[in-house]
Every structure is written in structure tokens, then in C-alpha cells.
Amino acid sequence: MTDAPRTVVVDDSRFMRGLITDILESGGIDVVGEAADGAEALTVVAEVEPDVVTMDVEMPRMDGIEAVERIMREQPTPTLMLSAYTEDGAEETFAALDAGAVDFFAKPGGEVSMGVSRLEEQLVETVRSVAEADLSGGAAVAAATHGGSATTTTTTDGVEPNTTVVIGSSTGGPDAVERVLAGIPGGADVRVLVVQHMPEAFTGRFADRLDSACSLAVSEATDGARVGRGEVLVARGGKHLAVTRYSGGRLRVELVDEDRGQNVRPSVNVTMESVAETVDDPIVGVILTGMGDDGATGVTAIDDAGGRIIAQDEETSVVYGMPKRAAATGRVGSVLPLDDVAGGIVGGAP
């Protein structure tokens, strides 16, 4: 692919289509087509064969969810959903991810917590990342297997007592995390922290989805929460998740509302570094699909503390950014296909 991914912008608002087009073209991205609804999007995508599609969720005639399903079935193309960062928007966005969308982003033009210029830069960066997504090993497979058994049966023979697991992910992560947790038996002696790059309105719903999909007890992290054997905490969007105490096989966490030198919040680095500093029992750090380098310093800290590091392989990653950066540290002990990661966690992979 060239440095300028060819993009189709889909939104029922002419103003929003123009705004998104201006932002993308100012960032060096080539907008080769527009559509006012999902039905028109199918025609435009078939005609221009873009590298990436930005897709609104709520549109007349055919909404974004149905459009993504059709695109993935008829002409698989990496798709970025542009959605409202609300609880209602979360439900619709997760449905779009189930249908095969690669990632999602806040619609420009609404009330946002960051400056407009930073928002525009992040949108351009995200579109470029989604354009590079490997649908053959990532999002398309995830959409085809969602709701079914995507993992192999694992045993807990190799898991050490009182093992703390930290899982970090970004683009393509919601489905990947679900598949990993679904492969961990409920009786495994693990306590798990999940850090997925996701806004605050989405992480509670994400925790609920994970809780329904696996044998572990999953909840969204709250300040001062504790997590013990067979339990999972999902980092809350907009705040870092740090472990402050470890005693009797239980972790105590705090939510940190400061940047800590990171460009994302929650950050995998912050959680992993706090675990490495606080926990004196076995630790497993896991880096799954995602763009950027979050987690690279975290895996170094865990390795320095004597823990094990697992990274998802390139073939099954939707975006091979975070796992690649982790592997480049030289601290990763196992590089595994997604459906082998759970076994690597509880089976004691080297």
C-alpha cells in the first residue's frame, strides 16, 4: 500500500462527510469516494475498491452495522466506525465490531476532551492503521467466529499458584481479549487485569461482554477495587489502572487520573509497571493486537521482575504494532497465534 491510503467516507450528514474528508486529506489521506448511507456505500466500495472505509453507525436505508456485514461478506475492506462516545453508542459500536469492523473512533465535531488538532491527528493515524489491518488473520476471522467456540480447550497443569496476568491490547483487541479469556478455565489460579484502549463510556459494556463470554468473573475496575483468584478487572477508559497492594493472593488497584508520561489512558505500561513493582508472585504479561508501542516498557518491567511475556503473532493480529514493539525489546518469551495465547498463560509456556 502507498503512504496515502485510498479511503471512502460514509455518513448521512453532508457536513460530516465534508469535515471528515477535509481532516483526512489535510493529513495526507486520499479520499476517493463518499456515500450517504450503507446501501450507497456498498456500490461505492465495489466501484473504487478503497484501502479503508470510515463508516457512520446510524444512517437511513441501511445502517453502518448492516453495511459492514455486507462489505465483509462481499468485498472485505478494513472499516473504521465513527460513533458517539455514549453508552448507547457503545452497544451499536460493539455490534459493528462483531460484524467485522476493525476499530472505532469518536465522531469529530462533538464535545471532546482533547484539543481539535490532536483529535484530527489521531483520526488520521487511526485511519492509516486500520488501512493496514490484516483481515485474513484478524477482523474477518473474528467476525466469522464470534459467538462460537474460537479457542481450544486448555488445562491448568502448568499455571503457578497466585499468578497475576496483565493483558494489553488496542486496535482489534475487543474480540482478541474475549477469545483469550474464554480459553482460561474458571478454576485457574489467576487474577487478571485487562487494559484495552477504549473510552470511558465503552469499558463498562466491554466488561459485561467479557463476563458473559468466559468462565471468569469480569467487572470494570473501580478505585480501591480488589481482584482475586478467578477474577478479572477491566481498566476504566480515561484513567490508568495501577496496582497499589498485593496480599493473600489479592490485588488492590487505584484509578489514576494523570497522564504518567503516556500518550494513551489507560496505558498498558502503567499497569504492567505497577504489577512488576508490587507483586512478588508469578506474573504473565500479554500483548495482543494493536497500533502503537504501549506495553513495550511494561513488558521490560515484568521481565526484570522475573515474569513471563507472551505476544500475539503477526499472522493473527489485526494490527501488528504493539506485539511487534514488545517483541523488539527482546523480552518476549513466547510469540503465539491468538487461539494459543490462553494455553500459553495457564499451561506455563516458556
Features:
350 residues; alpha/beta; Rossmann fold; 2 domains; 7-stranded parallel beta sheet; 5-stranded parallel beta sheet; 15 strands
Describe what this molecule looks like in 3D:
The chain has about 350 residues and is of the alpha/beta class. It has two domains: about 130 residues, Rossmann fold, CATH 3.40.50.2300; about 180 residues, Rossmann fold (3-Layer(aba) Sandwich). The strands form three sheets. Strands 8-10-7-6-13-14-15 form a seven-stranded parallel β-sheet, sandwiched between helices. Strands 2-1-3-4-5 form a five-stranded parallel β-sheet, with helices on both faces. Strands 9-12-11 form a three-stranded antiparallel β-sheet.
Short description:
The chain has 350 residues and is of the alpha/beta class. It has helices at 14-26, 38-48, 64-74, 87-99, 116-131, 139-145, 173-182, 200-213, 268-278, 296-304, 322-328, 338-346; strands at 6-10, 30-35, 52-56, 79-83, 103-106, 163-169, 190-196, 217-220, 226-227, 231-234, 240-247, 250-256, 283-287, 308-312, 334-336.
